[in-house]
Amino acid sequence: MSRGGVFLGVDVGTGSARAGIFDEKGKLLGSASSPIQIWKEKDCIEQSSTDIWLAVCTAVKSACSLANVAAEDVAGLGFAATCSLVAVDADGSPVSVSWSADARRNIIVWMDHRAVDQADRINARNSPVLQYCGGGVSPEMQAPKLLWVKENLQESWSMACRWMDLSDWLAYRATGDDTRSLCTTVCKWTYLGHAHMGQWRELDSRDMEACGWDEVFWEEIGLGDLVEGNRAKIGRSVAFPGHALGSGLTPTSAKELGLLPGTPVGTSLIDAHAGGVGVMESVPEAESKADLSDEEAICRRMVLVCGTSTCHMAVSKNKLFIPGVWGPFWSAMIPEYWLTEGGQSATGALLDYIVENHAAAPLLANHAASQSVSIFELLNKILLSMAHEQNIPFLSALSQDTHVLPDFHGNRSPVADPKSKGVICGLTLDTSEKYLALLYLATIQGIAYGTRHIVEHCNAHGHKIDTLLACGGLAKNSLYIQEHADIIGCPIILPRENESVLLGASVLGAVAAKKFSGIHDAMKSMNAAGKVVHPSSDPRVKKYHDAKYKIFRSLYEQQLSHRSTMAQALQ
Length: 571
Description:
Layout: E1 6-12, E2 16-22, E3 28-35, E4 39-41, E5 44-47, H1 49-66, E6 74-81, E7 85-88, E8 107-108, H2 116-124, H3 142-152, H4 154-159, E9 162-165, H5 166-175, E10 180-181, H6 182-188, E11 208-209, H7 215-220, E12 237-239, H8 251-257, E13 265-270, H9 271-279, H10 294-298, E14 301-306, E15 310-316, E16 326-330, E17 338-344, H11 348-356, H12 361-370, H13 375-390, E18 403-405, E19 423-425, H14 433-460, E20 467-471, H15 478-488, E21 492-495, H16 500-512, H17 519-526, E22 529-533, H18 539-569
Parallel strand pairs: 1-6, 6-13, 10-12, 14-20, 20-21
Antiparallel strand pairs: 1-2, 2-3, 4-5, 5-8, 7-8, 7-9, 11-12, 14-15, 15-17, 16-17, 18-19, 21-22
């Protein structure tokens, strides 16, 4: 391997830290993962930055070993992570964000919903910054979580010297540079990235004074102390994703990671946004539209980053305000493009919940293990045999009596109702594996109808999305992808490399190492297409899903009606 020839991407997800080594064409040479600890108590979900850094170091060393890559071969690295909130003191030591006061537990995990009340109070103020996050903050964003800590854990509040998004903290831990990413600050902290429009271009690539904080907003919501002292606690300077931080890896972090001091580190991305960077240019020649410029073509695509939750990423050159959908976020994923970000709070997590809590789950797990396949592969096989036995025209029709509203962890987009609940319509006393397979199919369809709702809503407000790209764990499930293609009516492109989030993180390292002039330039070289899944051409399939989609939409309307009826009854 030639000196400085590969790029390292690190992704800290909800359950593990992963590392991947890629060449300049985006080919994966080796990857590894290491589990991370998580504490869950009701709405409070917490992690430890100390534990996460140890897991990152383990994963990086293992990935380098598997790829047969020496420290001097790594030309640059980038970090991606969940948008969890990290608290550290003046020395960088953890500050507890937990009722338990356990100092290890210094991270409020992205999916934590302790701050629903705080989010409601912030939204009631109708601050102008809220129009840039779909009209209101989610309890998964940082301002409500910060307000919760201030109101409930005064000692921690006074001890914390830095509040950071997890991916920014990882880059800070690696380089000692406290510059924040336009991705994290704009998407999760109400930072107005477009304050830099016309002042800086990506090619200028430097840390910019953070002039996009709306100090009135922070004072109004009771967090004015965070903008005191030149905003040191939440970010004095910001940079485009991929901007080279500090002097690269510090000697300490380099030793811990098994890499060389000074190795360039790019400004971070949130994990879903790294998935977008890792996949959005993965379009095969046959699917590319010759009559569109590169700039127009990329604005017709939406990336589904499908994991525990699903994020729906689309970009535009003009800012588009879409009620209930996050954004428009300037330069939050691809520099100098506006990002629209839809999402579903529980997708992979919901499928796990449906399967694991069914009476047939232990039996199914044993059968899957004996056949050396995953539970989902076995469920897909069961559905195929059921469709054959029942002689139905197409597999999707098995679920005609079962309808699922997948809002088991609220609705992020496009209804933006964290209080929404999940609904399963059509339950029986059947406890068999076959009935579990039906529930699983109906749940996949419910998730896909949710994505259809998001796509239709975005297109009704100015987008022209006609192609989907999918990555993440669920994208490996052929039934999941085919149902989405059939239900949304768009082709779905799968990337050549499964590990799109790691690839997106490695793009940051390649840009920091000056291998490419910017993020989009790197994407064109390092993204590559794999399989294309087309919607069914059978008109009966379309007719079936149109009917089920109507029922899907009615389930939420009924829930609102039920909520209102019960609220009146309790007055």
